[in-house]
Write a structure and sequence with these properties.
elongated, single chain, mainly alpha, 203 residues, 0% strand
């Protein structure tokens, strides 16, 4: 009887310690559904950027001339602002793990405030372009410029809403899910910035 119980325990222990695939959604921090959303959003942006690259191959002169009207210093500053915001979001997660709620919320406030600055500078940049008569109908460059950066801006706004929500309920799971989305917003901008602003600038 004892031998049968021992064998049963050994079998259960082997099942319990069975290695889990590193690609399993359960291994990701936060809610797996958030990661599905993040991957789908990255694929959408990826498709838009491939379309942009394909159009540039067909119209290199139009794209080269269009880039001369972009505010590269302002976009560079916005890149630094958004990455710093991502740093504050990562710090917030660290504080949440050790139950420092006040510090968690302060770090989220820093991340969100920088996100608002990013939005303000982006709107200022749009106003610059519109004052020059550059709109979505100017050429394919500016059609895609407004569509892609505008879609990204919408994600920044949605990300700020998420940061506000997790600041109210800063559980570890909420923090990991919400800040993962915010880091996705950072990542997409880091890809957009060189493709739209730096290519063909001789840097």
């Amino acid at each position: 009887m004892d031998e049968a119980c021992q064998k049963e325990n050994e079998t259960a222990e082997r099942v319990y310690h069975q290695p889990v695939s590193p690609w399993a959604l359960e291994n990701l921090p936060g809610d797996p559904m958030m990661w599905i959303l993040i991957v789908s959003e990255i694929l959408v942006f990826g498709g838009a950027l491939w379309a942009f690259a394909g159009n540039e191959l067909l119209n290199p002169e139009i794209y080269r001339e269009a880039r001369t009207h972009l505010n590269v210093p302002l976009a560079t500053l916005n890149t630094i602002i958004l990455l710093t915001s991502g740093l504050f979001a990562a710090i917030a997660v660290r504080f949440a793990k050790i139950k420092e709620i006040v510090k968690t919320r302060l770090a989220l406030l820093g991340a969100g405030s920088l996100g608002v600055v990013f939005i303000a500078l982006k709107i200022f940049e749009y106003k610059e372009k519109l004052a020059l008569g550059l709109n979505v109908e100017t050429n394919t460059f500016y059609t895609l410029y407004y569509l892609v950066t505008g879609f990204h801006l919408a994600h920044v706004i949605f990300g700020l809403i998420i940061l506000s929500i997790i600041a109210l309920w800063p559980t570890e799971d909420n923090m990991e899910s919400g800040t993962a989305f915010w880091h996705m917003v950072d990542l997409i901008w880091v890809i957009i910035f060189p493709i739209f602003y730096l290519m063909g600038q001789g840097l």
